[in-house]
Amino acid sequence: MTDDGVSYVRQSSSVIELEGAENMKLFNRNKAAAPAPRLQSYPTPDRWDDWTEYDSLAWPRKVERRYQLVPTICFNCEAGCGLLAYVDKDTGQIQKLEGNPVHPASRGRNCAKGPATINQVNDPDRILYPMRRVGPRGSGQWERVTWEHVLDEFAGR
Questions:
Q1: DSSP string for residues in 7-49
Q2: Do 67 and 117 lie in a common domain?
Q3: What is the CA radius of gyration of the chain?
Q4: Is 80 in a helix, a strand, or coil?
Q5: Contacts with 95 (C-beta within 8 Å, 6 or more apart), sequence order
Q6: pTM here?
Q7: Is the residue at 113 inside a domain?
Q8: What is the per-residue pLDDT for 4?
């Protein structure tokens, strides 16, 4: 440690030491790396069909929620990270999205876009079926049409 109280890192051939902290060894390059720890908060895949958690919004009461965890992919960017959709077994609704620890690319770690996908799923303005504009542009006048009608109309163009 210097006179101004700043610590510096010194690197020798096999050990990185922190000056001023009693030469605390931070990393030894000659030893084999320890296996990465598993994300402990995630259930193992054999428990995905029937996973139980306490509802955090019900605190201080303990309300159990039973979920089926469904692996899926985030399409909010080109990375395609793996997600787990927590589907409530009682209502059939997606309650939350978290990173999928067994996905080969993201390994359970995602940016904020993936878990925020739940907002897109539950958006009250989400279009759930084909619509056709019946009024002038910008009037907000739409009618529901069938998929067959839409496919026939576009195939005829």
A1: --EEE-SSEEEETTTTTEEEEETTSPPPPPPP-TTSPPGGGTT
A2: yes
A3: 26
A4: coil
A5: 65, 67, 86, 87, 88, 118
A6: 0.52
A7: yes
A8: 52
Q: What separation in angstroms does the CA of 40 have from each of 16, 31, 37, 73, 149?
A: 29, 25, 8, 21, 50
Residue pLDDT, tens place only, 63-115:
778 888 888 888 878 778 888 888 888 888 888 888 888 887 877 778 877 77
Q: Does 39 fall in a domain?
A: no
**pLDDT single digits (tens) 3-61:** 555 444 444 444 444 444 444 444 444 455 555 555 556 676 666 666 677 677 667 77
Tell whether 63 and 102 lie within a shared domain: yes
Mean pLDDT of 134-149: 91
- Give a yes or no: residue 95 inside a domain: yes
Sign of CA dihedral 12, 16, 21, 22: negative
30 & 4 share domain:
yes
Supply 48's token pair.
């995905």
Please check whether residues 51 and 115 belong to one and the same domain: yes
Q: Which domain holds residue 17?
A: 1-34
22-to-18, 25, 124 alpha-carbon distances in Å = 8, 9, 59
